[in-house]
Specification:
globular, 464 residues, Rossmann fold, alpha/beta, nine-stranded mixed beta sheet, 12 helices, GMP Synthetase, Chain A, domain 3
Length: 464
């Protein structure tokens, strides 16, 4: 297939939160978007769970204009950073939904019909700019090309036996790789219908299995945890073909319970915004709890010790996971130093994750090289970004953010704050006004001081 999106025909395309569009309808709406934004430097999309978001993203891809998905619940500081840093010149959103953004609005409700662009964009052109949290500072814009997206989707389609005969079901956010790249563009490229449930509730997944013929289900561990706690809904997924879990490690007990209730051992996979999905279990292969499978076609991996020395693939010795892949990003927008630091001198991408590789090539992710990346409900959250927001409060003198164990989310964001004359609730509210919902501290603790080592660095392992 030569183009990322494939051909526009009248087959089934997407249903989002009950709004269904045939493929022809979708591409017609997308063509109208493309006509409005032609020649723009980049466009931001308020990426709520709607058919309008899908049409806006596809329209940007048709026009060859980089698309910048913006979380619909982003706080003003984060939203302004994304819009300013990305260089977006237009905001695509439903009328009335673009308030607070200092950009011209292209309303998605009433665009006039248009013909799709005749020319196909360059495969090496930037398709998406996805913002991801590192361990320090504000989110960075990850540049993903059309070629990388196509290579990633094709590798997964082969590994998961994903065909036009599947019906994909998920309720994941449309501003991340999992929900947008895999969960929307993947369905469009493969040619399979998509049912987006709006929110990933167990009853919605069960209904999609029973009424829509859902065969391929995507979820983060929190989704599968909630399904495991709802035996009736989980049993409805026995009719499915494949259940896929990603974005964070699936707890072993949840893996076992899902297998028991649905008759399916979940497929786990591993990736990052910068690399897309690089390692996965296969539809026709062994699926073991706690393992994320083997490298996908075209992907090479290695383990390195702290001094850079190679680590054996013996199933026991951990090392930092490095990757080489055709799905790799083209760098961080406006951050050449960060881009350079992300690679080894011999050109491998440093994932920052610690892994163990077994002799047969099976990978197990065992943790982070840093303690500052929190995995909550399938999201990867940088502690540094939240700390910066907390420190912006005039009464806050010091702040440290960690991931605290949570039975449903895996980890929850917990903040330890040294402040004068302010209460925990006020600090939490201050952060909530400035951060996307999943990044907001669920726990705020006022403390007299933060534990530090002899060098003055906060020792986060002593918090809690």
């Amino acid at each position: 297939m030569t183009d990322l999106l494939g051909d526009a025909d009248d087959g089934p395309a997407v249903a989002v939160a009950g709004r269904a569009l045939t493929r022809a309808d979708l591409f017609g709406r997308a063509a109208a978007v493309a006509a409005e934004i032609a020649g723009a430097r980049a466009v931001a999309v308020r990426a709520d769970a709607s058919a309008g978001t899908v049409a806006a993203v596809v329209g940007g891809l048709l026009a060859g204009v980089p698309v910048v998905p913006v979380p619909p619940d982003a706080g003003p500081v984060e939203r302004e950073h994304i819009l300013r840093d990305s260089g977006a010149t237009l905001l695509l959103a439903a009328r009335g939904a673009g308030e607070g953004a200092d950009l011209p609005l292209v309303p998605l409700d009433d665009l006039p019909p248009a013909d799709p662009p005749a020319a196909r964009p360059d495969p090496d052109a930037t398709a998406l700019v996805l913002y991801t949290s590192g361990t320090t500072g504000a989110p960075k814009g990850v540049l993903l090309s059309r070629r990388a997206l196509a290579a990633g989707i094709d590798a997964l389609a082969e590994a998961w036996d994903w065909t036009p005969g599947d019906v994909l079901v998920h309720g994941l956010p449309l501003f991340h790789v999992h929900g947008l790249v895999l969960g929307v563009l993947g369905a469009l490229r493969v040619g399979s219908p998509l049912v987006h449930t709006g929110r990933p509730r167990p009853e919605a997944y069960a209904r999609a299995a029973a009424e829509d013929g859902g065969s391929l289900f995507f979820g983060v561990p929190t989704v599968w945890s909630r399904l495991a706690a709802d035996p009736g809904a989980a049993a409805a997924l026995r009719s499915a073909r494949l259940l896929v879990s990603g974005s964070a490690a699936l707890p072993v007990p949840v893996f076992g319970r899902i297998a028991e209730l649905t008759g399916h051992r979940p497929v786990e996979r591993y990736g990052m915004t910068e690399t897309l999905i690089t390692v996965s279990a296969r539809a026709d292969g062994e699926r073991r709890p706690g393992r994320v499978g083997r490298p996908l076609p075209g992907v090479a991996t290695r383990l390195a010790a702290e001094d850079g020395a190679p680590v054996p693939h013996d199933g026991e010795t951990p090392g930092e996971l490095h990757v080489r892949t055709p799905t790799l990003f083209d760098g961080y927008l406006n951050r050449p130093d960060a881009t350079a630091a992300a690679f080894t001198p011999d050109g491998w991408f440093r994932t920052g994750d610690i892994a163990v590789v077994e002799p047969d090539g099976t990978h197990r992710i065992v943790g982070r090289a840093s303690t500052d990346l929190i995995k909550s409900g399938g999201y990867r959250i940088g502690a540094g970004e939240i700390e910066d927001v907390l420190l912006a409060h005039p009464a806050v003198r010091e702040a440290a953010v960690v991931g605290a164990p949570h039975p449903d989310l895996g980890e929850q964001v917990a903040a330890y704050v040294v402040a004068d004359g302010v209460g925990e609730a006020e600090v939490a509210a201050f952060a909530a006004e400035r951060l996307t919902a999943h990044k907001r501290p669920r726990v705020v603790r006022l403390v007299e001081s933060l534990p530090r080592n002899a060098m003055g660095k906060v020792v986060k392992s002593r918090l809690g």
